Amino acid sequence: MSTEAPEITKQLLTPPRVRRAWYILCRSDELGKAPIPRTLFGDPIVLFRDAEGTAGALVDRCPHRSVPLSGGDVVQGTLRCPYHGWRFAPDGACVHIPALIGLSDRAVHAATAYPVRERQGYIWCWADPTSPPQTEPWSFRLSSEPGYTVVQREVRAQATIHAVAENALDVPHTAFLHGGLFRNDADRQPIQCVVQRYADHVECEYVGESRPEGIVGRLLSPSGGVVTHFDRFYLPSIVEVEYRIGDENHILVNAALTPADDFDTVLHAVVAVRTRVPGWLLRPLVMPFALRIFGQDAKILAQQTEIMHRFEEQRFVSTELDLLGPHILKLLQRAERDDLGDLQRPPTRREITMLV
Question: What is the tens place of the pLDDT at every residue in 142-167?
Answer without folding.
Answer: 988 998 989 899 999 999 999 999 99
